[in-house]
Amino acid sequence: MEHSPLNETESLSGSYSAGKNIKKTSGFSLFMDLLSGARTPDALWKNRMFRVKYAVRTLLHPLDTLKVLDKMAAEPVWQEALSVQTKLPNKIHKPYLYLGLPSAGRADALVDHYEFVKSLSNTTLKNALLSVGGYTVTQFTGKDGENFRVVLGSIGKSEREGEANMFLYMNETRLAALTFSVVQRPEGPTIVVGGFQGAHRSTPHEVIKQATKSCYGLFPKRLLLESLQRIAEITGVKRILAVSDTGHVFRSLRYRHRKKNVFVASYNEFWDSISATVYSSALYDVPLELPRKTMEELPSKKRSEYRKRYTLLDELGESTASLLKA
Hints:
Elements: H1 27-36, H2 48-60, H3 62-74, H4 76-84, H5 103-119, H6 123-129, E1 135-141, E2 147-153, E3 164-170, E4 173-185, E5 188-197, H7 205-214, H8 220-235, E6 239-243, H9 267-273, E7 277-278, E8 283-286, H10 300-323
Parallel strand pairs: 5-6
Antiparallel strand pairs: 1-2, 2-3, 3-4, 4-5, 6-8, 7-8
């Protein structure tokens, strides 16, 4: 997953040129404006062939498309979302979030996510989830003085994998990234992780090794997951589901060959390592809280390191709670 640099100073109080291009109207009117080129969330919408393809796909999924467009036309949170997720109107037309989700399910997932964002009383978190720049939601220091931080935003680069992005950085090097949406299920709000990657392939292995050593043996993806779990706890999320190797959208026929060199992560291996359980052929059920070993369970020579690990994880949780104070 390639991502543009993050500007953490940007928030909803800033100016969004695309957002200014949307006014309150009906879903059908918005569709006609998008189709005619009267409204162009970004340069891609100025391309006539892109708009023609959008029209054809809408004819295949008219009710699901209008369900999303009605929300987008009427509600400010959707208008802000369109300013950063400029392909939002056509997300339901292609594989989205996880393999096998039909167009009606894609529409529901989009509506659920932005209803969740709209319902948040935590202004900082709401702004982060609608920010192309991203907000630092977790920060801590490694044992050798390295600066670690987790950035949460909605940058619109991994649009097939969900609506929100999280990144773990050591100093200025990105070590891990995940993409997710929040959907409604019978048990309550549920995070669905649609993508989870480690460092970019150009990142030297020594950098990742140093980061792991600096965090007392905790791998970067584990730290990023812990930050996501703290956000889930703060917002009342009841479950975390995550894509499997076979459940990622790039496994669809549409992307299988085009994206074969992009999909390099082993999702199953990571989920198995943190005691996640198989939920379906496409998804794992991830614990809301990862179990910790007691000192009595550990050999005496390992107790000191594990104690430092758990202290670091506690600091991570406290930092997230502090930075996300409403």
